[in-house]
Design brief:
With 348 residues, the chain is an alpha+beta fold. The chain is 47% helix and 17% strand.
Length: 348
Protein backbone atom coordinates (compact mmCIF):
# COMPACT_ATOMS: atom_id res chain seq x y z
CA UNK A 1 0.00 0.00 0.00
CA UNK A 2 2.79 2.43 0.91
CA UNK A 3 4.65 1.72 -2.32
CA UNK A 4 1.55 2.10 -4.48
CA UNK A 5 0.55 5.41 -2.92
CA UNK A 6 4.11 6.82 -2.86
CA UNK A 7 5.60 6.05 -6.28
CA UNK A 8 8.54 8.39 -5.72
CA UNK A 9 9.69 6.37 -2.71
CA UNK A 10 11.56 3.07 -2.56
CA UNK A 11 10.39 0.37 -0.18
CA UNK A 12 11.94 -2.76 1.29
CA UNK A 13 10.03 -5.56 3.03
CA UNK A 14 11.92 -8.03 5.24
CA UNK A 15 10.58 -11.39 6.44
CA UNK A 16 12.08 -14.78 7.28
CA UNK A 17 8.84 -16.50 6.14
CA UNK A 18 9.30 -17.35 2.46
CA UNK A 19 5.60 -18.16 2.03
CA UNK A 20 4.61 -14.68 3.21
CA UNK A 21 7.19 -13.16 0.87
CA UNK A 22 5.80 -15.15 -2.07
CA UNK A 23 2.35 -13.67 -1.42
CA UNK A 24 3.83 -10.16 -1.15
CA UNK A 25 5.85 -10.49 -4.37
CA UNK A 26 2.86 -11.83 -6.28
CA UNK A 27 0.67 -8.99 -5.03
CA UNK A 28 3.24 -6.35 -6.02
CA UNK A 29 3.71 -7.92 -9.45
CA UNK A 30 -0.04 -8.16 -10.04
CA UNK A 31 -0.46 -4.37 -9.76
CA UNK A 32 2.77 -3.51 -11.55
CA UNK A 33 4.79 -2.09 -8.66
CA UNK A 34 8.48 -1.61 -9.35
CA UNK A 35 9.44 0.50 -6.33
CA UNK A 36 9.31 -2.26 -3.71
CA UNK A 37 11.40 -5.36 -3.21
CA UNK A 38 11.39 -8.06 -0.57
CA UNK A 39 14.26 -9.64 1.32
CA UNK A 40 14.17 -13.18 2.69
CA UNK A 41 16.09 -12.91 5.97
CA UNK A 42 15.68 -12.70 9.69
CA UNK A 43 16.51 -9.39 11.34
CA UNK A 44 20.01 -10.45 12.39
CA UNK A 45 20.88 -11.46 8.81
CA UNK A 46 19.38 -8.27 7.38
CA UNK A 47 21.15 -6.03 9.89
CA UNK A 48 24.47 -7.55 8.80
CA UNK A 49 23.89 -7.62 5.03
CA UNK A 50 21.93 -4.41 4.46
CA UNK A 51 23.84 -1.51 2.90
CA UNK A 52 20.88 0.84 2.37
CA UNK A 53 20.00 3.88 4.46
CA UNK A 54 16.37 4.58 5.29
CA UNK A 55 14.25 7.68 5.89
CA UNK A 56 11.67 5.48 7.63
CA UNK A 57 11.83 2.14 9.41
CA UNK A 58 8.48 0.61 10.41
CA UNK A 59 8.15 -2.37 12.74
CA UNK A 60 4.55 -3.41 13.44
CA UNK A 61 3.35 -6.62 15.09
CA UNK A 62 6.90 -7.88 15.51
CA UNK A 63 8.83 -6.58 18.52
CA UNK A 64 6.84 -8.25 21.31
CA UNK A 65 6.74 -11.63 19.58
CA UNK A 66 10.41 -12.24 18.76
CA UNK A 67 13.44 -13.41 20.72
CA UNK A 68 15.68 -10.88 22.50
CA UNK A 69 18.53 -11.49 20.04
CA UNK A 70 16.22 -10.54 17.16
CA UNK A 71 15.12 -7.41 19.04
CA UNK A 72 18.80 -6.58 19.42
CA UNK A 73 19.23 -7.03 15.66
CA UNK A 74 16.46 -4.46 15.05
CA UNK A 75 18.35 -2.05 17.30
CA UNK A 76 21.50 -2.73 15.28
CA UNK A 77 19.64 -2.05 12.05
CA UNK A 78 18.28 1.25 13.40
CA UNK A 79 21.73 2.30 14.61
CA UNK A 80 23.37 1.40 11.32
CA UNK A 81 20.76 2.27 8.72
CA UNK A 82 18.39 5.05 9.87
CA UNK A 83 19.33 8.41 8.36
CA UNK A 84 19.71 11.60 10.41
CA UNK A 85 16.18 13.02 10.92
CA UNK A 86 14.88 9.56 9.93
CA UNK A 87 11.83 8.18 11.72
CA UNK A 88 11.37 4.83 13.44
CA UNK A 89 7.84 3.52 14.04
CA UNK A 90 7.71 0.78 16.69
CA UNK A 91 4.59 -1.09 17.73
CA UNK A 92 4.71 -3.30 20.82
CA UNK A 93 2.64 -4.73 23.66
CA UNK A 94 3.00 -2.97 26.98
CA UNK A 95 2.07 -3.07 30.64
CA UNK A 96 -0.28 -2.79 32.40
CA UNK A 97 -2.97 -3.52 29.79
CA UNK A 98 -1.34 -6.69 28.47
CA UNK A 99 -0.13 -7.92 31.87
CA UNK A 100 -3.18 -10.03 32.68
CA UNK A 101 -2.80 -12.06 29.50
CA UNK A 102 0.78 -13.17 30.20
CA UNK A 103 -0.16 -16.40 32.06
CA UNK A 104 -3.01 -17.13 29.64
CA UNK A 105 -0.72 -16.83 26.63
CA UNK A 106 1.81 -19.13 28.30
CA UNK A 107 -0.96 -21.65 28.99
CA UNK A 108 -2.26 -21.56 25.41
CA UNK A 109 1.26 -21.88 23.98
CA UNK A 110 2.20 -24.77 26.28
CA UNK A 111 -1.06 -26.60 25.56
CA UNK A 112 -0.63 -26.17 21.80
CA UNK A 113 2.74 -27.90 21.95
CA UNK A 114 1.05 -31.00 23.37
CA UNK A 115 -1.81 -31.09 20.86
CA UNK A 116 -2.00 -32.54 17.32
CA UNK A 117 -3.14 -30.73 14.20
CA UNK A 118 -2.58 -27.38 12.53
CA UNK A 119 -1.85 -24.18 14.42
CA UNK A 120 -5.52 -23.21 14.17
CA UNK A 121 -6.66 -26.59 15.46
CA UNK A 122 -4.18 -26.47 18.34
CA UNK A 123 -5.24 -22.97 19.30
CA UNK A 124 -8.92 -23.91 19.10
CA UNK A 125 -8.41 -26.85 21.46
CA UNK A 126 -6.26 -24.79 23.81
CA UNK A 127 -8.94 -22.08 23.95
CA UNK A 128 -11.55 -24.73 24.73
CA UNK A 129 -9.48 -25.83 27.72
CA UNK A 130 -9.03 -22.25 28.90
CA UNK A 131 -12.80 -21.80 28.64
CA UNK A 132 -13.29 -24.91 30.78
CA UNK A 133 -10.94 -23.42 33.37
CA UNK A 134 -12.97 -20.22 33.27
CA UNK A 135 -16.24 -22.10 33.71
CA UNK A 136 -14.73 -24.01 36.64
CA UNK A 137 -13.96 -20.73 38.43
CA UNK A 138 -10.23 -20.39 37.81
CA UNK A 139 -10.61 -16.69 37.08
CA UNK A 140 -13.45 -15.86 39.47
CA UNK A 141 -11.30 -13.23 41.18
CA UNK A 142 -10.24 -11.76 37.82
CA UNK A 143 -13.50 -10.87 36.03
CA UNK A 144 -11.75 -8.76 33.39
CA UNK A 145 -9.52 -11.68 32.45
CA UNK A 146 -12.56 -13.94 32.28
CA UNK A 147 -14.19 -11.49 29.84
CA UNK A 148 -11.05 -11.42 27.68
CA UNK A 149 -10.93 -15.22 27.44
CA UNK A 150 -14.57 -15.34 26.40
CA UNK A 151 -13.97 -12.65 23.78
CA UNK A 152 -11.14 -14.69 22.23
CA UNK A 153 -13.63 -17.33 21.09
CA UNK A 154 -15.15 -14.81 18.65
CA UNK A 155 -11.87 -13.85 16.97
CA UNK A 156 -10.17 -15.34 13.92
CA UNK A 157 -8.21 -18.47 14.86
CA UNK A 158 -5.47 -17.78 12.34
CA UNK A 159 -4.83 -14.35 13.82
CA UNK A 160 -4.89 -15.71 17.37
CA UNK A 161 -2.48 -18.52 16.50
CA UNK A 162 -0.09 -15.96 15.00
CA UNK A 163 -0.44 -13.84 18.15
CA UNK A 164 -0.27 -16.41 20.94
CA UNK A 165 1.68 -19.42 19.70
CA UNK A 166 5.18 -18.14 20.31
CA UNK A 167 7.76 -18.66 23.05
CA UNK A 168 8.64 -14.94 23.02
CA UNK A 169 5.28 -13.24 23.75
CA UNK A 170 6.51 -10.42 25.97
CA UNK A 171 4.85 -7.11 26.92
CA UNK A 172 7.24 -4.47 28.25
CA UNK A 173 7.07 -1.21 30.14
CA UNK A 174 7.29 1.65 27.65
CA UNK A 175 10.00 3.32 29.72
CA UNK A 176 12.18 0.21 29.34
CA UNK A 177 11.61 0.17 25.58
CA UNK A 178 12.54 3.85 25.34
CA UNK A 179 15.77 3.18 27.25
CA UNK A 180 16.63 0.41 24.79
CA UNK A 181 15.93 2.61 21.78
CA UNK A 182 18.12 5.35 23.24
CA UNK A 183 21.01 2.91 22.80
CA UNK A 184 20.23 2.98 19.07
CA UNK A 185 20.66 6.76 19.21
CA UNK A 186 17.04 7.68 18.51
CA UNK A 187 14.81 9.97 20.55
CA UNK A 188 11.19 9.36 21.50
CA UNK A 189 8.90 11.92 19.85
CA UNK A 190 5.38 10.77 20.68
CA UNK A 191 2.71 8.37 19.54
CA UNK A 192 1.70 7.56 15.96
CA UNK A 193 -1.81 7.46 17.42
CA UNK A 194 -2.94 11.10 17.34
CA UNK A 195 -5.31 10.69 20.30
CA UNK A 196 -2.54 9.55 22.63
CA UNK A 197 -0.65 12.81 22.10
CA UNK A 198 -3.62 14.77 23.46
CA UNK A 199 -3.35 14.24 27.20
CA UNK A 200 -6.49 16.25 28.00
CA UNK A 201 -8.54 13.81 25.88
CA UNK A 202 -6.76 10.48 26.36
CA UNK A 203 -6.09 10.68 30.12
CA UNK A 204 -8.99 10.67 32.64
CA UNK A 205 -9.74 14.18 33.89
CA UNK A 206 -8.96 13.51 37.54
CA UNK A 207 -5.46 12.31 36.66
CA UNK A 208 -4.52 15.24 34.42
CA UNK A 209 -3.49 17.62 37.28
CA UNK A 210 -1.27 14.88 38.72
CA UNK A 211 0.23 14.22 35.31
CA UNK A 212 0.98 17.89 34.68
CA UNK A 213 2.88 18.08 37.98
CA UNK A 214 5.48 15.56 36.76
CA UNK A 215 8.63 16.92 35.14
CA UNK A 216 10.20 13.57 34.19
CA UNK A 217 9.16 12.53 30.64
CA UNK A 218 9.70 8.86 31.51
CA UNK A 219 7.53 9.11 34.60
CA UNK A 220 4.82 10.89 32.61
CA UNK A 221 4.74 8.03 30.09
CA UNK A 222 4.49 5.48 32.89
CA UNK A 223 1.58 7.32 34.50
CA UNK A 224 -0.19 7.67 31.14
CA UNK A 225 0.15 3.92 30.50
CA UNK A 226 -1.30 3.17 33.93
CA UNK A 227 -4.17 5.64 33.62
CA UNK A 228 -5.14 4.33 30.17
CA UNK A 229 -4.54 0.66 31.05
CA UNK A 230 -2.46 0.72 27.86
CA UNK A 231 -2.00 -2.70 26.24
CA UNK A 232 -0.08 -1.68 23.13
CA UNK A 233 1.82 1.35 21.90
CA UNK A 234 2.69 2.78 18.49
CA UNK A 235 5.71 4.96 19.24
CA UNK A 236 7.65 7.32 16.98
CA UNK A 237 11.39 7.90 17.39
CA UNK A 238 13.77 10.12 15.41
CA UNK A 239 17.48 10.12 14.72
CA UNK A 240 19.05 13.50 15.57
CA UNK A 241 15.83 15.51 15.92
CA UNK A 242 16.01 19.28 15.55
CA UNK A 243 13.89 21.53 17.78
CA UNK A 244 12.23 24.22 15.67
CA UNK A 245 11.39 27.74 16.74
CA UNK A 246 7.64 28.42 17.18
CA UNK A 247 7.56 30.60 14.06
CA UNK A 248 9.16 27.83 12.00
CA UNK A 249 6.70 25.29 13.37
CA UNK A 250 3.76 27.50 12.40
CA UNK A 251 5.19 27.99 8.92
CA UNK A 252 5.45 24.22 8.43
CA UNK A 253 2.00 23.50 9.83
CA UNK A 254 0.36 26.36 7.92
CA UNK A 255 1.34 24.66 4.65
CA UNK A 256 -0.42 21.38 5.53
CA UNK A 257 -3.56 20.89 3.46
CA UNK A 258 -6.42 18.82 4.88
CA UNK A 259 -9.37 17.17 3.20
CA UNK A 260 -12.54 15.51 4.44
CA UNK A 261 -12.69 11.74 3.97
CA UNK A 262 -15.71 9.90 2.52
CA UNK A 263 -18.68 9.71 4.91
CA UNK A 264 -17.26 12.44 7.17
CA UNK A 265 -19.96 14.49 8.93
CA UNK A 266 -20.54 17.88 7.35
CA UNK A 267 -21.59 19.78 10.47
CA UNK A 268 -22.65 19.43 14.08
CA UNK A 269 -21.00 17.81 17.07
CA UNK A 270 -18.86 14.68 16.69
CA UNK A 271 -18.75 11.71 19.04
CA UNK A 272 -15.31 10.15 19.48
CA UNK A 273 -15.33 6.72 21.12
CA UNK A 274 -11.99 6.60 22.90
CA UNK A 275 -10.45 3.93 25.15
CA UNK A 276 -11.40 6.02 28.21
CA UNK A 277 -14.99 6.58 27.06
CA UNK A 278 -17.04 8.58 24.58
CA UNK A 279 -16.02 12.21 24.07
CA UNK A 280 -18.37 14.68 22.41
CA UNK A 281 -16.69 17.26 20.21
CA UNK A 282 -18.85 20.39 20.55
CA UNK A 283 -20.71 21.72 17.52
CA UNK A 284 -19.41 25.24 18.02
CA UNK A 285 -15.89 23.91 17.43
CA UNK A 286 -16.41 21.17 14.86
CA UNK A 287 -19.23 22.58 12.72
CA UNK A 288 -17.14 25.42 11.22
CA UNK A 289 -14.30 23.03 10.54
CA UNK A 290 -16.46 20.31 8.99
CA UNK A 291 -18.45 22.79 6.93
CA UNK A 292 -15.28 24.30 5.49
CA UNK A 293 -13.74 20.92 4.66
CA UNK A 294 -17.02 19.79 3.08
CA UNK A 295 -16.49 22.55 0.48
CA UNK A 296 -13.03 21.25 -0.41
CA UNK A 297 -9.47 20.86 0.90
CA UNK A 298 -8.03 23.70 2.98
CA UNK A 299 -4.65 24.50 4.47
CA UNK A 300 -4.10 24.98 8.17
CA UNK A 301 -3.44 28.64 7.40
CA UNK A 302 -6.87 28.93 5.78
CA UNK A 303 -8.62 27.04 8.56
CA UNK A 304 -7.17 29.23 11.27
CA UNK A 305 -8.86 32.22 9.66
CA UNK A 306 -12.22 30.78 10.72
CA UNK A 307 -13.63 32.81 13.65
CA UNK A 308 -13.73 29.73 15.90
CA UNK A 309 -9.95 29.33 15.60
CA UNK A 310 -8.56 32.80 14.89
CA UNK A 311 -7.26 33.10 18.46
CA UNK A 312 -7.05 29.37 19.27
CA UNK A 313 -4.40 27.57 17.22
CA UNK A 314 -4.14 24.81 19.80
CA UNK A 315 -7.87 24.12 19.54
CA UNK A 316 -7.62 23.89 15.75
CA UNK A 317 -4.63 21.56 15.92
CA UNK A 318 -6.35 19.35 18.48
CA UNK A 319 -9.62 19.29 16.51
CA UNK A 320 -7.85 18.28 13.29
CA UNK A 321 -5.96 15.53 15.09
CA UNK A 322 -9.21 14.20 16.51
CA UNK A 323 -10.83 14.22 13.06
CA UNK A 324 -7.80 12.37 11.70
CA UNK A 325 -7.94 9.85 14.54
CA UNK A 326 -11.67 9.38 13.98
CA UNK A 327 -11.22 8.73 10.26
CA UNK A 328 -12.99 11.92 9.16
CA UNK A 329 -10.09 13.94 7.72
CA UNK A 330 -6.57 13.48 6.43
CA UNK A 331 -3.69 15.68 5.24
CA UNK A 332 -2.98 15.66 1.52
CA UNK A 333 0.40 14.92 -0.02
CA UNK A 334 2.63 17.97 0.27
CA UNK A 335 3.94 17.46 -3.28
CA UNK A 336 0.45 17.37 -4.76
CA UNK A 337 1.20 14.12 -6.58
CA UNK A 338 -1.86 12.00 -7.24
CA UNK A 339 -1.71 8.24 -7.77
CA UNK A 340 -5.16 7.20 -9.04
CA UNK A 341 -3.84 4.37 -11.24
CA UNK A 342 -1.93 2.71 -8.43
CA UNK A 343 -4.78 3.16 -5.96
CA UNK A 344 -7.31 1.75 -8.40
CA UNK A 345 -5.12 -1.31 -8.94
CA UNK A 346 -5.01 -1.85 -5.18
CA UNK A 347 -8.81 -2.15 -5.18
CA UNK A 348 -8.90 -4.93 -7.76
Amino acid sequence: VAAATNPQGRFVGVDFNDKALAVARAAAQSIGLNNVHFVHADFAQFAQSNNLFFDFIACHGVWSWIAPNQQHAILQLVTKSLKPRGLLYLHYMCHPGATQMVPVQALLNDLAKQLPGTSKQKLDAALAFASQLDAAGAFVDQPQLSEKIRALKHKDLGYLAHDFLTDHWSPQHSVDVHHLLAQARVTYLGSANALENLDNLSVPGGIQPLLSSLTSPALRERVKDISRNQHQRCDLFQRAPVVLKPADVLQQVDALRFQALPNAPTSGSVIFRTPIGAIQGPAEVFSPLLERLAKGPATFAELRQLPAFSAALGRLSQSLQMLMWGGHAHPQRVDGLETPDQVNRLKI
